[in-house]
Amino acid sequence: MEYKKKYPRLYFLSFDDSVAAINGFWNSSYIIPKKTISWDKALFYFSKTNIDYDYVWYIEDDVYVPSKESLINLDLQYGEDVDLLCSSYALNDEGDVELDGWVHWNEHDNKVQKPWARGLQCICRMSKRLMNKIDEFVTEHKKLVFIELLFTSLARRHEMTVAMPLEFAEVDCCRGLDVNTIDPNKIHHPIKDSKDQEMVRKRLELPAIQDIDES
Fold first, then answer.
1. Three-state DSSP class for residue 147
2. Distance separating alpha carbons of residues 85 and 140, to the nearest angstrom
3. Whether 36 contacts 26, CB under 8 Å
4. Are the C-beta atoms of residues 112 and 145 closer than 8 Å to each other?
């Protein structure tokens, strides 16, 4: 596998959709027509197979992260006391399906109890406590619901801590980004093309202006 040769210290997991689905981990995103996607598999893996952790990062492939230090610094800043790090968080205590014009409130499927909350999850960090609640939800309902509603609503219902790091300020849903002008030191979303991400990251290797020998 090409990626394994390039990153020999990383583990790459691949397993059939049915492994997650048969255990109730499916339907994490109704937007994608496929019944079981990578989110379902990742949630299954860290709920049922690999459970020896304090928190776990989930990062979609169109999220640009400058370096591993970006995540390490966030871990040091927030420690283990925050149950969910995400880029947005909005409350919906009354269950108003038209609140803020967010079109996904209806995806509760009569399974997510109020109060509700929403948050963008393309990059997020979750505690073991929150992962346990997701596992309990799947055990009870035999399926997931849209994760941008589920994660935050479970955190809200169980009085867990949620934080929106300033480092996620450039993480948005659908806006267009000019990869030629963005700050390579900041986390960005979305950057769909991995080659564009590599191009931005290479700009970090350039010397600072004051270090350039003009002689």
1. helix
2. 25
3. yes
4. yes
The length of the chain in residues reads: 215
Q: What is the DSSP letter of 24?
A: T
pLDDT score at 8: 81
**Host domain of residue 187:** 14-204
3-state helix, strand, coil in the chain (%, to 5): 40, 10, 50
Residue 130 falls inside a structural domain: yes
Q: Does 209 reside within a domain?
A: no
Q: Tokens at residue 16, please?
A: 């059939």
Q: Are 150 and 117 in contact (CB under 8 A)?
A: no
Average the pLDDT over 141-170 and give the result. Answer: 97
Q: Is the pLDDT of residue 77 over 70?
A: yes
Q: How many domains does the chain have?
A: 1
Q: Which two tokens stand for residue 113?
A: 């109890």
Closest CA to 124 of 160, 158, 74, 174: 74
pLDDT at 214: 42
Say what percent of the chain tops pLDDT 70: 93
Residue 186 clears pLDDT 90, i.e. is over it: yes
> So what's the pLDDT on residue 153?
98
pTM as predicted = 0.90
Q: How far apart are CA 75 and CA 93, in angstroms?
A: 30
Query: pLDDT grade, residue 2 (50/70/90)?
Result: low
Do the Cβ atoms of 117 and 91 come closer than 8 Å? yes
